[in-house]
Amino acid sequence: MQPELPTGTRPLRGDERRREVGQRRVEELRDLINTHDYRYYVLDSPEITDAEYDALVRELRQLEAEFPELITPDSPTQRVGGRPTALFAPVEHRAPMRSLDNAFSAEELTAWAARVEKRLGAQPDYVCELKIDGLAVSILYEGGVLVRAATRGDGLVGEDITANVRTLRTVPMRLHGDKLPRVLEVRGEIYLPVKAFERLNQELTGRGERPFANPRNAAAGSIRQKDPAVTASRPLRLWCYSLGFVEGVGFSRHSESLDYLKRLGLPVNPATKTGHTLKQMQEFCAHWAEHRHDVDYEIDGAVVKVDALELQRELGETSKAPRWAIAFKFPPEERTTLVRSISVNTGRTGKVTPFAVLEPVRVSGATVTYATLHNEEEVSRRDVREGDTVIVRRAGEVIPEVVGPVLSKRPPDARPWRFPKKCPSCGTRLVREEGEADWRCPNRAGCPSQAVEWLFHFASRGAMDIEHLGYVTGMQLLERGWVKDPADVFFLTAEQLGQLPNFGEKSVHNLLSAIEAARHRPLWRLLVGLNIRHVGPFAARLLTQTFPSMEALRAASLEELVAVRGVGPRIAQSLHTWLHEEGNAQLLEKLRRAGVRLSGEAPARPAAGPLAGKTVVITGELETMSREEATHAAEAAGARVTNSVSKSTSFVVVGANPGATKYDKARALGIETVDERELLRRLGEHRTVH
User: Fold this and answer.
1) Is 622 helix (H, G, I), strand (E, B) or coil?
2) Whether residue 166 is found in the same domain as residue 294
3) Mean pLDDT lowest for which of 80-89, 266-275, 403-412?
4) Is pLDDT at 630 greater than 60 in this prediction?
5) Which H or E run includes 504?
6) Do 222 and 234 touch, CB atoms closer than 8 A?
7) Is residue 454 in some structural domain?
8) Quick one: 48 and 197 in the same domain?
9) Helix (H, G, I), strand (E, B), or coil: what is residue 116?
10) Where in 418-525 does DSSP place strands (E)?
């Protein structure tokens, strides 16, 4: 007898029943394949043979071919097959991806910990992790499904690499578990194992192609392929090291968030240690500095973090890096080579830097021909001379530097090197400000070296992004007198450009088109391009979000600039000084006449919110929400939330254990202070505060 069907239903036809069975099997196969991917690629503990795994994938493909409507973006069969991308679209991170300050010695690490403990008034618990030498990425999941991946970029905006990251089998397309967060953005490092890097280079050289310099470059080059199939052909891996953003889940410690990521099926490096003392962290760093080649991936240091998230928030951050974490860089590998000559270079800010021209040598996977000597005092202290055999290393494994000479190999006629008294580019007498180690050329307007370096910086991708305006073209424009400062670029004509060597009609058109596009770049890019000391992309974005025009920036007081969250006194002072120098005012006027955009979009704040027009500072621990949540709520209500108290502050929200400086300054200036209950009332929210 057939079972009685519930009222309102009908028997399933054969094709419907087959589809229902097929759907259940598809879901089962996907869970099985994802589980086996996790065990194989993340845990390195497979439970089935490769043949058995391949059979599961074949069965899933057959079912999806029969029922194509069951194919979903997070299916394991969709890891490869996305269309080649024409470009990598910009992606704004949900939370900034900060860089880290570095410590290059045990003493510097100890000094950092002392600063942390002084600010907190107590010794915190720490977490120490290996610093993977790869490509930093953020990966966004919504409802447990991978929806987007992006590079770090400038920390605020990266590039969309979703199609390529989907090909990585260490990256789950769907998170594990039943109670998944609504939104989760995880940060990690994509890397290429050392043995895979060696095999890849063998393949490239075998085909007559240029090999990669090191595994980090190989990982970056592999993930930024226009065709995801190329990325899929390379065995890239991922280690996750932090949560960038999450909704619906809370943690009190960073170590807890790492455990949570592991439970979700994300790969977290097992060589992670928690401890109560800095000594334990130093022992971790010392161990891995000695055993750095014991693992099949490149590590260039360790990262030490304060574990408690509330203490991280209390420590805060500078415009470039968090105060609660530091990267301890391992001692770099060193090689010896010959110093052919010593010279100096005048940079875009006027800083004159000595450097050594070397007999080419391979150091940490890269060929080094030039190495910095830092400044006059360092050359004298290290006593480096032309003709010396010297020890060379890559500082932080990035910038080549001369450690010192091998005295036993010094030629008998080698003479001490003397720092020049005049700029090698313009002949202006060099100056050195009190308390500074660097000599500078003060001839900012007339120094050819500063001019070309500034022009190159102005046109660079990180600033105004004027494609086709490279170093050689810039020098030619300066030599002809057609460009004296970056504003002159916008007055160039096709007739002028046509006179440059190797500039045909197409080259002229390309450069003029790039110049025209640069007129409309966001204001923060112009601020970076103006060559203001200490003002980089991150600070420029923060400043222009608060002051959306050059006019507003010039009208802002030093105190108001310092109050911008994430902008410190040094950046604010440098910008304020630059904006009020007469020559720079003339430059801005010339840019305005050239049609360059000198204003941005107004800050995205509600004009009619309950806190519209208010400037708010939040200090101390709140009971019903974190300081970040309070900041977002105040901004959503129309307020501008700043990091320091000034005369323009409307009121200060004071929680438990407030920062003494902010609280005392508010009282000294007669600025209103309110508690969390009053903030919630002004926001129009109703929460219980005990």
Assistant:
1) coil
2) yes
3) 80-89
4) yes
5) none
6) yes
7) yes
8) no
9) helix
10) 439-440
Average of per-residue pLDDT across 9-19: 60
Only one residue has tokens 């940079």, namely 347
Tell me the two tokens of residue 518: 């640069």
Segment 139-160 shows an average pLDDT of 89
The answer to whether the CB of 239 falls within 8 A of the CB of 132 is: yes
Query: How far is 87 from 160, CA to CA, in rounded Å?
Result: 9
Q: What is the 3-state secondary structure (H, E, C) of 306-319?
A: ECEHHHHHHHCECC
As a whole number, mean pLDDT of residues 653-679 equals 84
Residues 127 and 247 in one domain: yes
Inter-CA distances, 466 with 79, 458, 494, 521, 601, Å:
36, 8, 16, 10, 22
pLDDT greater than 50 at residue 181: yes
pLDDT surpassing 80 at residue 338: yes
User: Does one domain contain both 461 and 493?
Assistant: yes
Q: Which of 131, 273, 305, 329 is catalytic?
A: 131
> Which of 329, 360, 388 is the last residue before a domain boundary?
329
Domain final residue, candidates 518, 553, 577? 518
CB atoms within 10 A of CB 188: 27
pTM: 0.53
Clarify whether residues 122 and 254 are in a common domain: yes
Residue 207 and residue 305: Cα distance in Å, rounded? 44
Residues 221 and 247 grouped into a single domain = yes
Range list of H helices, 67-149: 106-120
Strand, coil or helix: 111: helix
655 and 540: one domain? no
**pLDDT confidence bin for 197, thresholds 50/70/90:** confident
Residue type, 38: Y
Question: Alpha-carbon dihedral of residues 130, 131, 134, 137, nearest 10 degrees?
Answer: 100
Q: How far apart are CA 106 and CA 85, in angstroms?
A: 45
DSSP, collapsed to helix, strand or coil, labels residue 218 as helix
User: Two tokens at 86?
Assistant: 């024409």
Q: Is position 131 annotated as part of the catalytic site?
A: yes
Number of compact structural domains in the chain: 6
User: How confident is the model over 78-103, as pLDDT tens digits?
Assistant: 654 444 444 578 888 888 888 888 89
- Domain CATH code at residue 586: 1.10.150.20
Distances, alpha carbon 561 to alpha carbons 88, 315, 532, 565, in Å: 34, 21, 15, 9
Q: What is the mean pLDDT of the chain?
A: 85
The whole domain housing 675 covers 615-683
d(CA 192, CA 131): 14
Do both 275 and 305 map to the same domain?
yes
